[in-house]
TrEMBL record:
Key words, A-Z: Lyase, Organic radical, Pyruvate
Domain PFL: 4-644
A single GO cellular-component term on record: cytosol
Gene3D superfamilies, sorted: 3.20.70.20
A GO term for molecular function: lyase activity
Record has Lyase as a keyword: yes
The protein, known as: Pyruvate formate lyase family protein
Modification sites for Glycine radical: 746
Short name of any one Pfam family annotated for the protein: PFL-like
Domain Glycine radical intervals: 651-768
Length: 768
């Protein structure tokens, strides 16, 4: 049974207006930015943060044990117009080059529109949560001040400004927490007041204090500074000593500890706004004024502590139970599976997944080798984690997400046409490699246009081996070209970044010690996540060429080329034939072998990029599309799998929509053939009808099915247990399905809050 306050909070959240917003943040931010306009960047940042935290409304909700909320209002027309004008002032009619100077890179126009450039942050990272709770904010401030006083950086004013801004930021957070202590005291909540007063400067000594301190840091970072999509790291590990000490000394019972965990989990959902960030066309998202309106936070549990030592403990069980009973979209719990995992815990995980809890599973047995291959040291690899959407990281030792969505179908297009691309929109051939990866592509990290390849030495393929060689050649050409352009960007960005600070720089290892933000090199690791996209479309297209041209000799390569160029005009017979050929996801070896070909080709080029790189960043391969599979298909001509021009490519690691006809076991068998020991992240969306896994027998089948997949080398699983009829009914009667939570790609969403396009995509992938 959930605590009374939590049940009330959840009910209020669903009833909250879509227009409610933390408007104070915008008002106080703009006042402070103008007030301190003449200060050096980092000093100005600290003073702006302090100004907001000294003045924002302190909210304590009746009945809560863990405090930390913001005051929300529904803006009137004048307030909304003012806020919209600010967004225009910051980002409209600003060149991509100017955006690079201001913020280095960004994820999408919708993602940056509510962000003042001064308070810009990239989010998508993990703080050093252990240092926060074990050492306290006072220690952090004293450390930064000590470096200033030591004179070590006396000859570098940028570094002195950086540290000065950091001290201001730490002290600002202490100010807010003390204000909470005062407010709790006025309300007669002496226990909460004492906890807040203690952790305002000092380290935590109990589970309650640790969770409360973490939450205050999250509230400030996410709702005020805009730094969201946190990874909380291996929370069941670093909170365990607090829990065990509390139990041993009689401060808490296990159920009381469970109640605190439930309340902390709920806080992560409570601060979210309605809406789905990937549904940019919906009015809820368009009108939202928040900087982190639906940013999920990730908690890592279980997994190996070192070779052969399991990390499953009592808190692991409690956190799965909490996620199961809450059924919320946030936080996002990532369970790390390994050989020999505790069977009872594994059954609890699968039971939680079949109830549509926001739980996904990653495989230590593939992830650890992959991370080691792509540059993670042995001493760090067992601490790996994830943030949205299914992107790997080494907690506290690296900064925010940087990525490129690599369209793995483009090398097929270029291999088929000798390095040239047929632009469907223009109705003509394109060959201009200099136009590849323009500034916008690099800043948002998405292959969204038309790409040209390497035409040198092209010969018509005489065998499938020749065609595969052409695919690999074009893939290599594209990615090395991207790397060359990005290496130039890195140098510019490090220069632009000098003397700047962001909220995340306060709590990463290396930034304070080096008096340098993570962009300029303050942390140990800097990576670009190379998101390999459209795997199944590439695989099916290669398998089709092999079958149609080289095995059956039913069609010539040129015949297929001409049909694809015209989007099968007057060749519906050929399209039907290609569409009927075996597809990835049905456990057909002659098709599935190309998943190994494509994945290894991709990983080989990424490895070569790391050998050739000269800048800070290393490159790490994943297989993922998020929801960009639609956009990445828009500029592509028809493909040899029977897909028409402009249609979406396959999503994440899944078969192409509707192409798997042989059941979930065959699907998992196909996917497990991917060489995941070289892949460092990405989701597999599995859809099951509720009737297939009901009862104890259903749970036993699901547990065994997922165990076998992991043992065979599968990397990740996320599950939607929902029928097509339920989703269709939810579209018609949203008020009756408000808490229907679904896995989208690397995050969860309430189905009725998703945009119509996203809803239809999910319905089309769902079994009857």
């Amino acid at each position: 049974m959930l605590p009374e306050y939590v049940e009330k909070s959840i009910d209020q959240w669903f009833k909250k207006s879509d227009e409610a917003t933390f408007f104070e943040r915008i008002e106080l931010q703009e006042e402070a930015v103008k007030k301190y306009y003449d200060k050096p960047y980092a000093v100005r940042y600290g003073k702006v943060l302090n100004y907001i935290l000294e003045r924002m409304t302190v909210v304590i909700n009746e009945g809560e044990k863990i405090a930390g909320s913001v005051k929300e209002i529904i803006p009137d027309d004048e307030q909304r117009e003012w806020a919209e004008n600010l967004s225009c002032e910051w980002w409209d009619d600003v060149s991509e080059e100017e955006k690079q100077r201001r913020i280095m890179f960004y994820y999408s126009p919708g993602w940056i529109k509510r962000r003042n450039p001064l308070l810009f942050t990239f989010g998508h990272l993990s703080f050093d949560w252990e240092a926060i709770i074990n050492k306290g904010l006072g220690w952090h401030a004293e450390r930064a001040q000590g470096l200033i006083d030591s004179g070590e950086f006396a000859d570098d004013q940028d570094k002195i400004d950086f540290l000065t801004g950091a001290v201001e930021c730490y002290k600002a957070q202490t100010v807010l927490i003390n204000r909470y202590a005062d407010e709790a005291g006025k309300a007669g909540n002496d226990a909460l007041s004492a906890v807040c007063r203690k952790i305002a400067c000092e380290p935590a000594e109990t589970l309650y204090e640790a969770l409360q301190l973490i939450w205050f840091v999250v509230l400030i970072s996410q709702k005020v500074a805009g730094c969201g999509v946190f990874c909380f790291d291996r929370m069941d590990q670093y909170l365990l000593p607090y829990f065990e000490k509390d139990i041993a000394e009689g401060r808490l019972t296990e159920e009381e500890a469970f109640g605190l965990i439930v309340e902390f989990f709920n806080k992560n959902n409570e601060i979210l706004d309605h809406g789905d960030h990937m549904s940019q066309e919906s009015d809820v998202v368009k009108n939202n004024l928040e900087v982190t309106y639906d940013d999920p936070n990730y908690i890592i549990i279980a997994g190996l502590l070192s070779k052969g030592v399991s990390g499953v403990n009592k808190l692991s069980h409690m956190m799965i139970r909490a996620q199961h009973e809450l059924g919320l979209r946030n936080p996002f719990v990532v369970v790390r599976w390994h050989e020999g995992i505790d069977p009872e815990f594994w059954s609890e995980v699968c039971d939680s997944m079949r109830s549509n809890s926001t739980v996904v599973v990653y495989n230590d047995e593939t992830m650890i080798p992959a991370l080691l291959e792509f540059g993670i040291d042995e001493e760090d690899v067992y601490g790996y984690g994830f943030y949205g959407c299914n992107d790997p990281l080494i907690p506290k030792k690296e900064g925010g997400l940087r990525q490129l969505w690599v369209n793995l179908v483009w090398p097929f297009e270029l291999a088929l046409n000798g390095g040239s691309a047929f632009c469907v929109g223009a109705g003509d051939w394109v060959h201009d490699p200099s136009a590849n990866f323009d500034m916008r592509d690099r800043l948002i990290g998405l292959m969204s246009g038309v790409y040209s390849g390497d035409t040198e030495g092209y010969k018509e393929p005489e065998s499938m081996e020749d065609f595969i060689a052409g695919y690999k050649k074009q893939l290599r050409f594209l990615l090395l070209q991207y790397m060359e352009k990005m290496e130039e960007d890195y140098l510019k960005e490090q220069e632009y970044s000098r003397g700047r600070i962001r909220i995340e720089d306060l709590f990463l290892q290396g930034t304070i010690e080096n008096a340098t933000n993570w962009i300029a090199g303050g942390t140990k690791y800097h990576k670009i996540t190379m998101q390999g996209s459209g795997l199944a479309t590439a695989v099916d297209s290669l398998a089709a060429i092999d079958q149609a041209v080289f095995k059956e000799k039913k069609y010539s390569l040129d015949e297929i080329r001409q049909a694809l160029r015209t989007d099968f005009a007057d060749r519906e017979d050929l399209r039907i034939y290609l569409d009927s050929l075996p597809k990835f996801g049905n456990d057909v070896e002659e098709v599935d072998k190309y998943a190994t070909v494509v994945t290894n080709a991709f990983c080989d080029v990424v490895a070569e990029m790391n050998e050739k790189r000269t800048g800070l960043y290393t490159y790490m391969p994943t297989l993922s599309t998020d929801r960009d599979f639609t956009g990445m298909g828009a500029c592509l001509a028809a493909t040899a799998d029977g897909r028409r021009a402009g249609e979406q490519i396959s999503e994440n690691q899944s078969p192409y929509m509707g192409a798997d006809h042989s059941g979930v076991t065959a699907l998992l068998n196909s996917v497990s053939k991917v060489p995941f020991h070289r892949i460092t992240g990405g989701p597999l969306n599995v859809m099951l009808h509720p009737s297939t896994i009901e009862g104890d027998d259903g749970l036993a089948k699901l547990t065994a099915l997922f165990s076998v997949f992991m043992k065979r080398g599968g990397m990740q699983l996320q599950l939607n247990v929902v029928g097509r009829e339920e989703l269709l009914d939810a579209q018609k009667k949203p008020e009756q399905h408000k808490n229907l939570c679904v896995r989208v790609t690397g995050y969860s969403a309430y189905f009725v809050q998703m945009g119509k396009i996203a809803q239809e995509e999910l319905i089309n992938r769902t079994v009857n």
